[in-house]
């Protein structure tokens, strides 16, 4: 289903030469606003909090301020269990680390709407549904500084999106037992974001076919194969699971089991590596599949969170 690699150079920069400030500014100038965070994310969150006043606490955990670049500032919102108890397991759900991955955000909102209330009494829940609102508005993988927030979850992070999310989790959770990070893999990873990254870094583009279907990324240090398997089986009725390529890989990584690969999350600075949760997974939905609707993509994200909680509660 993926587009073929192209020999056409990326329109910004000189092949083989990393970008400097001028190239980053030229890239930023090409990023128009395409949707409205306040309408599509913040308004539903406020409606949710109003509808679940006894269970849900909506709070602002920071402000993403890009006025230095002539852009907007964005209030960052999270939802937590109002009745937070030290003896309850802690569940962290993150979405929109890559703002262009729509179902990561909308799937989190769907789960909040339909599932948060029934889980909030027995669990401590913390949900950050849209970590990168500028990326959401511009349908972008990077932030305005041409940094990928999902490589910046590390000390002294240069990405405000990552730093503020980590600070929020640290301020609210003395521990995390389960972390589900909601993502997508899209055809634009090959048509735009991969080539842009290669141009930015002055290297050749490392092309991989985009898997057609849902898959998960476990943690190399905490693989939890039974956990990952339970989530794959929960999603099967919602949307199809990605098959390995002819090399037994998904996006260049060896398949560990049906629909599952592993990454070293901490070493790569991934969102899924920011806590010591014993159960951690990253979803990868494929919204460009001809057999998966946007509603299915959102439902797959929500189904993963619900199945992850069910697994946590029985082990």
UniProtKB/TrEMBL annotation:
Residues 33-315 form the Peptidase M14 domain. Its cofactor is Zn(2+). Gene3D superfamilies: Zn peptidases. Keywords: Hydrolase, Metal-binding, Zinc. This is M14 family metallocarboxypeptidase. Belongs to the peptidase M14 family.
């Amino acid at each position: 289903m993926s587009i073929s690699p192209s020999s056409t150079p990326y329109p910004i920069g000189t092949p083989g030469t990393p970008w400097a400030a001028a190239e980053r500014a030229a890239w930023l100038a090409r990023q128009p606003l395409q949707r409205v965070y306040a309408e599509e994310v913040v308004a539903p969150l406020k409606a949710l909090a109003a509808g679940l006043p006894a269970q849900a606490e909506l709070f602002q955990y920071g402000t993403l301020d890009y006025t230095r670049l002539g852009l907007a500032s964005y209030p960052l919102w999270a939802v937590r269990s109002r009745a937070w108890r030290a003896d309850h397991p802690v569940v962290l759900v993150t979405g929109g680390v890559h703002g262009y991955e729509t179902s990561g955000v909308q799937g989190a909102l769907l789960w909040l709407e339909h599932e948060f209330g029934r889980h909030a009494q027995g669990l401590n829940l913390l949900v950050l549904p849209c970590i990168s609102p500028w990326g959401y508005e511009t349908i972008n993988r990077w932030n305005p500084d041409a940094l990928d927030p999902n490589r910046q979850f590390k000390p002294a992070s240069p990405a405000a999106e990552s730093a503020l999310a980590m600070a929020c989790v640290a301020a609210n959770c003395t521990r995390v037992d389960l972390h589900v990070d909601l993502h997508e893999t899209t055809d634009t990873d090959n048509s735009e974001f991969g080539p842009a990254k290669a141009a930015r870094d002055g290297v050749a583009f490392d092309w991989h076919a985009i898997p057609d279907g849902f898959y998960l990324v476990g943690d190399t240090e905490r693989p939890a194969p039974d956990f990952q398997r339970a989530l794959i089986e929960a999603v099967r009725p919602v949307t199809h699971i990605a098959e390995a390529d002819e090399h037994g890989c998904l996006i260049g990584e060896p398949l560990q089991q049906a629909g599952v690969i592993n990454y070293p999350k901490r070493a790569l600075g991934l969102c899924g590596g920011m806590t010591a949760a014993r159960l951690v997974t990253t979803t990868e939905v494929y919204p460009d599949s001809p057999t998966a609707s946007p509603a299915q993509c959102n439902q797959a994200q929500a189904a993963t969170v619900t199945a992850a909680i069910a697994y946590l509660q029985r082990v």
